[in-house]
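Q: I'm writing up a methods section and want to include an example of the input and output format. Could you take the sequence below and give the corresponding predicted structure tokens, formatted cleanly so I can copy it straight into the document?
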Amino acid sequence: MARNAVQLQKGLSEAEFDRLYGTEEQCRAVVIKLRWRDGFSCPICGGTTYSEVKTRDLFQCSTCRRQTSPIAGTIFASTKLPLRTWFRAMYHLTQSKQGISSIELGRRLGVRQTTAWMLKHKIQQAMMERDGRKRLKGRVEIDDAVLGGERSGGKRGRGAPGKTPFVAAVETTDDGKPARLKLRRVAGFTGQAISRFALNSLDPSCTVVSDGLACFHRVTDAGCQHQPTLTGSGPAAVRNPAFKWVNTALGNIKSAINGTYRAISTKHVPRYLAEFEYRFNRRYDLASMIPRLGYAIVTAPPMPYRLLKLAETYG
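A: Here is the clean output for your methods example:
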């Protein structure tokens, strides 16, 4: 049997992580480099010359005299935690295929569960912001799925209470390999919801392969070609080779969520899906995920805790 190069790649060891990001000074230097890749630029006047107010960890523009922090206007904004704690949280979220619960993350970081939850969700928010506007191209496998435990009595299946519907789509290469993944919660499996998903997530060049669920024909609203396939139901439908990669992705996602988390609030499902999507789309180079995620964090807008708790997002 051929070895899976993705699963067996070296990744970023804890020793190497400590060498690169083990001190507060190292983490701060990385943040500054990622935020100002071409050198300091004042957010007010665009000036490039500055002086450092070292006692307050600020940069002062030499032109307009405005003082700014390297973390101002980013997901890091207003944090009271050391940056090295943030970077260690980023390490655990990117290097673990199955994800990590806020309880376990808190234990590893030495912080309270509520603090770990905040860290995790802010990082997930940056992941969601980073991939939110990227569209799939070429051949795309698409399928419907739900998250949530079964409830005794009442309706079963797609419309059952307590379940969160979402759509999974996998872009495949010319030689039939999975390239990129999109996971989006939807209001329901309706034509309107699928149309909105397609307009936001699919390039008009796409050829979309789906099962016979009627709502999927609305991918044509985004200019995509649609190739429905009647699969029937049961195990045979899951094994249909036309949907090999989307079914594999869904199986991995559900196994990871069921194995790692006791429960996920419906309103926070988009961030958990964004975390799996982010890792999948960068799975060929685990070691580079920290700087790439760092860039996503310094370019994403701030997300105050009160908004983090309330946020509702649909695809």
